[in-house]
User: Which sequence fits this backbone?
């Protein structure tokens, strides 16, 4: 894997890496990141930080994905409505039973075609075959699974049966409020894809593990980030 190139940038690579990490890791605006960098004595504009996230964010996300261990085969699918550029759109999301984000797609419709697109992407891009597919009561999932001949894997359930993916929407809702809604479908898709990879790397179920295990997981996350941004 070729190293990331930071040539023709006025700021050192360490500064760029840290600014990109701050923006995607926490619910911060570009101006918030600008303020945090200023506290470290680094005078960089929020517009420059925005350009860094657009250029380096997707590259880092692809590198992080390649280093992740395969997810489980127990998938949870859900969709949520959001306003993008003043239009009503739907964010389709898939996670495994451990909360790993498998894929996120922004689509204009909430129908069979949209559900089919998400499922085809999952089957094409995931390194494991599904063992079960849990969804809410939306009929489009069942119809799409019928077309793919995967109806036997479908587990339509009540809200609490799909809590894993419902909870996965919460970080995006926070970012949506912070950014005062996404401005376009393309920019939303770019952000969500990058955010998912970084979220998977640093998301630790800290309430389920000991303090020593938490420290070890944090070291592993930092190591993965350092390798992906080298």
Assistant:
């Amino acid at each position: 894997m070729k190293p990331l190139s930071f040539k023709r940038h006025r700021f050192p690579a360490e500064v760029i890496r840290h600014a990109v990490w701050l923006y995607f890791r926490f619910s911060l605006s570009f101006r918030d990141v600008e303020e945090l960098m200023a506290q470290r004595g680094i005078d960089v504009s929020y517009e420059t930080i925005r350009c860094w996230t657009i250029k380096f964010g997707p590259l880092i996300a692809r590198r992080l994905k390649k280093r992740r261990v395969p997810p489980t085969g127990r998938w949870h699918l859900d969709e949520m409505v959001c306003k993008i550029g003043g239009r009503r759109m739907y964010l389709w999301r898939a996670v495994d039973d451990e909360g790993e984000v498998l894929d996120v797609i922004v689509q204009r419709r909430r129908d069979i075609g949209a559900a089919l697109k998400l499922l085809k992407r999952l089957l094409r891009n995931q390194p494991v075959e599904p063992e079960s597919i849990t969804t809410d009561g939306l009929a489009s999932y069942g119809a799409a699974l019928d077309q793919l001949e995967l109806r036997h894997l479908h587990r339509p359930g009540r809200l609490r049966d799909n809590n894993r993916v419902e909870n996965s929407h919460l970080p995006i809702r926070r970012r949506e409020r912070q950014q005062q809604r996404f401005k376009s479908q393309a920019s939303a898709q770019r952000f969500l894809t990058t955010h998912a990879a970084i979220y998977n790397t640093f998301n630790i179920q800290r309430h389920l593990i000991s303090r020593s295990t938490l420290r070890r997981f944090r070291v592993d996350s930092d190591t993965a980030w350092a390798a992906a941004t080298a």
